[in-house]
Automatic annotation (TrEMBL):
The protein, known as: Phosphatidylinositol 4-phosphate 5-kinase
Gene3D superfamilies recorded: 2-Layer Sandwich (3.30.810.10), Histone H3 K4-specific methyltransferase SET7/9 N-terminal domain (2.20.110.10), Phosphatidylinositol Phosphate Kinase II Beta (3.30.800.10)
Phylogenetic classification of the source organism: Eukaryota, Viridiplantae, Streptophyta, Embryophyta, Tracheophyta
Chemical reaction(s) catalysed: a 1,2-diacyl-sn-glycero-3-phospho-(1D-myo-inositol 4-phosphate) + ATP = a 1,2-diacyl-sn-glycero-3-phospho-(1D-myo-inositol-4,5-bisphosphate) + ADP + H(+)
Compositionally skewed regions (Low complexity) per UniProt: 648-664
GO biological process entries: phosphatidylinositol phosphate biosynthetic process
Length: 788
């Protein structure tokens, strides 16, 4: 414990002893004693006094709280505001900047154990750039988000090991270098705190492994080199021997040595690899966001303590995270994890006062169920049955186990197709069915099978979603391209009919697409799961892809953004626009504000994805954005304190108390209100968003908490991006890049030539892929901005 810390504790204890007699006499007051002439009582209501806590002038105060906590520093309107020092009775201390009673800005937090954090805070959380020094000697210096290491950072362990690289949600994730004290090091990809992906391990004895890793061990293609120059090239696996193969080459030789064999188990079971354990980081017993100060309540002359959440105690230090806490102590709409929310719901990690009051100006209608169920008698009923039979056959067909994600070039060959005939009476390979005879074709089956594994799609769940008892739903009208869209009943997958030209584009770009989605986990491009063809009288080609809006949050507004202006407006009166209406560039009246770490990753990924599409000579793609306004859930059954801010329930968001909304299958579900929107209280929504243990559902482009700012166009349609108005809304965003199969072919070139004679060439969608990519990125980076 430092001398400075001991001195403060002694002074604080002396102050407590002095004040004990006075506090007994004045137990009804908020602060028990005067520390000096500058100390004021919070219950002093004399309007003529210049030292009352209710004055709007910032003051310097020393305050002893009823529970024994002590604060000294700047004070404004009954709250710590400015620079100040807060000492809790358990010995924790914060010294730094405050904003409206919350630790926000630069500061230093110390624990009684001697551990400390110095750096940026946001609403109680360690958030920004900061350094954590553990009591055991661990240190981490780098980026933080909500108490979690997230971004670039360097971790020095008490064991002498060191990691320098990317972090995600408190764990090593991305590219990084781990240096063991022994001299061994690993440089490569990480996933969830484990070596996973391409990487190189240099052993202390001079040997080296360069190749693919999975779950912390070599898996797939790799090369092991000895210090003397010999090397072994093969397919690696810690599992069964039949999954392993390879060839040994002696030093200086280009040919395999006859009669010589080397067993991979020598590496897996040897001391060199087994000694390379990832050190664990120290886990704090309590976090700054859990330490709440006493703040004035909404009732005059009374105080309330912000609810602080207790430490779980069951969290293992082995996960390497610095933020494992219980979310079990929520009450009403109060949240004390980092003081993120007060009892009136006016503040949150993502924004400050009056953000949600602006929702009163919105008229958001409940989302309607999309699509028409394809039942018997529907014109496409036979096609649906054939599609389901074909998918069940393709996915359920036995095949060799996928031991590696590395595929041979032959798997991507356009001639790699499998035709299957489905007679009504069945055959050796197909089951009997009640539909007419048809033929079924799988394109590049091994590639799409591997893609489903890469996207963590379980084969059984995939078949149940598409081929289960529930029918598909056909969207009401075909898209501009003439394609028809179908949704599975659980909304997980979308099926789109395709033109032959689109199939050719996808097969052509399939190798690059596969490598791209494999390399970049956070890619925003559409996820494809299967490419098939049903042939009755004529061929019907279709693609199965992920439904971008398969989320627990109701989508209230959706925008299709390209960065062009000609024809990019929805010709509908305001009264007819609802949650299912897809709005366009000139309809956009928001700026999307992302937290710094998310914004940086967003920009990087958009650049990567656009480079892929530009390289493959495709254009006319767009960013589809869905917005869920976080105040738009049903709150009638949630007891909340009276608001003093004057905020009202947004018009059009509340359903009548006691009503229940039918679910997709027609039944009434008490957990679904407002046409499918989750029936969640404010506390439950905030709990879902802010609890790091539930961050698995929050990814780039998926369930992302953010803020949007209302904009207005001063120059009408000539202004593509409106001017900000200051109206802010707390939202959940879902977005991705769609329609990536339009080649810049002769028809698009003719369209460009024709429209360029009539309109501004920069305003039309049909432009060269390079120009399209540049314009698309310029526009997206104007409407998505970093949160200030």
């Amino acid at each position: 414990m430092s001398k400075e810390y001991k001195g403060i504790v002694k002074a604080w204890e002396a102050t407590v002893r002095k004040s004990q007699g006075f506090t007994k006499k004045r137990s009804h007051t908020i602060f028990g004693t005067m520390m000096s002439a500058t100390v004021a009582h919070a219950d002093d209501e004399d309007p003529s006094s210049t030292t009352t806590a209710t004055t709007t002038t910032q003051q310097q105060k020393e305050v002893l709280l009823p529970n024994g906590d002590f604060y000294t520093g700047q004070w404004l309107e009954g709250l710590p505001h400015g620079s100040g020092k807060y000492l809790w009775t358990d010995g924790c201390m914060y010294c730094g900047e405050w904003q409206k009673g919350k630790t926000t800005g630069k500061g230093r937090f110390t624990w009684p154990s001697g551990a400390s954090y110095e750096g940026d805070f946001k609403v109680g959380y360690m958030d920004g750039i900061g350094t954590y020094t553990g009591s055991s000697g661990d240190t981490y210096k780098g980026c933080w988000v909500m108490n979690l290491k997230h971004g670039q950072g360097i971790q020095n362990y008490a064991t002498g090991d060191c990691y320098d690289g990317e972090w995600k949600k408190g764990l090593q994730d991305g590219h990084g270098k781990y240096q063991w004290k022994s001299g061994t090091n690993y440089v490569g990809e990480w996933n969830g705190g484990i070596m996973n992906g391409n990487g190189v391990m240099n052993f202390e004895d001079g040997n080296r492994y360069d190749g693919n890793w999975e779950d912390g061990f070599p898996k797939g293609n790799g090369t092991y080199r000895w210090a003397d120059g010999g090397y072994y090239v093969g397919v690696w696996s810690k599992g069964e021997a039949k999954e392993r193969s390879g060839t040994y080459y002696t030093a200086g030789s280009q040919e395999a040595e006859e009669g010589s064999e080397w067993d991979q188990q020598e590496l897996f079971l040897g001391e060199s690899l087994s000694a390379c354990k990832i050190s664990v980081t120290e886990v704090a017993s309590i976090y700054p966001s859990q330490k709440a100060c006493y703040v004035p309540g909404s009732d005059a002359g009374s105080f309330k303590q912000m609810k602080a959440h207790s430490y779980d105690g069951n969290s293992s230090a082995a996960d390497g995270r610095l933020s494992n806490y219980s979310m079990s102590s929520w009450e009403g709409s109060d949240s004390g994890v980092g003081g993120g929310f007060d009892g009136e719901g006016e503040e949150s990690y993502y924004g400050y006062t009056n953000v949600n009051e602006n929702l009163n100006k919105l008229r958001l209608q409940p989302a309607k169920k999309q699509g028409e169920t394809i039942s018997k008698g529907h014109k496409n009923y036979e096609l649906m049955l054939n599609l389901q039979l074909g998918i069940r056959h393709s996915v359920g067909r036995p095949g060799p186990p996928l031991t590696s994600l590395d595929l041979k070039s032959s798997a991507f060959d356009p001639r790699e197709k499998v035709w299957t005939k489905f007679p009504p009476e069945g055959s050796k390979y197909t089951v009997p069915h009640q539909s007419c005879e048809f033929r079924w074709k799988d394109y590049c089956p091994l590639v799409f099978r591997t893609l489903r594994k890469l996207f963590n799609v379980d084969p059984a769940d995939y078949m149940i979603s598409i081929c289960g008892d529930d029918a598909l739903r056909e969207l009401s009208s075909p898209g501009k391209s003439g394609s028809f869209f179908y949704l599975t009943n659980d909304d997980r997958y979308m099926i789109k009919t395709m033109k032959k030209a689109e199939v050719k584009v996808l097969i052509r770009m399939l190798p690059a697409y596969y490598n791209h989605v494999r390399q970049f986990e956070n890619t925003l491009v559409t996820k494809y799961f299967g490419l098939h063809c049903v042939k009755l009288t004529g061929p019907v080609r279709f693609i199965i892809m992920g439904n971008l809006f398969n989320t627990e949050y109701a989508i209230h507004r959706r925008f299709d953004l390209k960065g062009s202006s000609h024809g990019r407006i929805t010709c509908k009166p305001e009264s007819e626009i609802d949650a299912s209406t897809t709005l366009k560039d000139l309809d956009l009246n928001y700026l999307f504000r992302l937290q710094r770490v998310w914004y940086q990753e967003f920009c990087r990924q958009v650049d990567r994805d656009c480079e892929l599409l530009e390289q493959e000579r495709v254009m006319d793609y767009s960013l589809l954005v869905g917005i869920h306004f976080r105040e738009s859930f049903h709150r009638a059954d949630i007891p909340t304190p009276p608001r003093t801010s004057g905020a009202r329930t947004p018009t059009g968001l509340r359903t009548p108390t006691g009503t229940r909304t039918p679910t997709r299958n027609g039944d009434v579900d008490s957990d679904v209100v407002g046409g499918g929107a989750p029936r969640l209280s404010k506390a439950e929504i905030d709990k879902l968003v802010l609890d790091p243990s539930r961050w698995a559902s929050i990814k780039l482009g998926m369930n992302m908490p953010a803020r949007v700012e209302k904009t207005v166009r001063r120059d009408g349609e000539t202004q593509l991006v409106g001017e900000p108005t200051g109206e802010l809304y707390q939202v959940i965003l879902t977005f991705g890049i769609i329609d990536i199969l339009q080649d810049y072919d002769i028809s698009k070139k003719l369209e460009h030539a024709y429209k360029s004679m009539q309109y501004d060439p920069t305003s039309i969608s049909a432009v060269d892929p390079k120009q399209y990519s540049r314009r698309f990125r310029d526009f997206i980076f104007k409407v998505f901005v970093e949160e200030s």
